[in-house]
Amino acid sequence: ADDIAERLYKLAHRGDFDEVVLIAPPQVLGEMRQKLHKEVCEKVKAQIPKTLTNHTIFEIEKLLQAA
């Protein structure tokens, strides 16, 4: 969570993205929320507490469309 939050901050600060959707296992997502910089939080459009390991691309697409 620390590494992801730091990397997202660097990318957001450089203007590399305007919007972001966070998908992570519930525990990791909870930790990440606490560590995200305000600049990143403003760009978060959705948060999906889900572990996607071993999911097919089709399953991931369905999940994202539902969100």
What descriptors fit this protein?
single chain; 67 residues; alpha+beta; two-stranded parallel ribbon; 4 helices; 2 strands; 54% helix
Task: Describe this protein's structure.
The chain is an alpha+beta fold. The chain has one domain. It is 54% helix and 16% strand. It contains four helices and two strands; from the N terminus they run αβααβα. It has helices spanning 2-13, 26-35, 38-41, 57-66, and strands spanning 20-24, 44-49. Strands 1-2 form a two-stranded parallel ribbon. The longest helix is centred in the N-terminal third of the chain and has 12 residues, at 2-13. The protein is globular, with a radius of gyration of 12 Å.
How would the blueprint of this fold be written?
Elements: H1 2-13, E1 20-24, H2 26-35, H3 38-41, E2 44-49, H4 57-66
Parallel strand pairs: 1-2
Helix pairs in contact: 1-2
The percent of residues in helical segments reads 40-55%
**What value does the Rg take, in angstroms?**
12 Å
Poorly predicted residue ranges? none
How far apart the termini lie comes to: 22 Å
Mean pLDDT: 92
Q: Please tally the helical runs, counting DSSP H or I stretches of 4 or more residues.
A: 4
Coarse shape: globular
Strand content: 15-25%
Q: Largest sheet, if any?
A: 2 strands, parallel
The total beta strand count reads 2
Biggest sheet strand line-up: 1-2
| Class based on secondary structure composition and strand pairing | alpha+beta
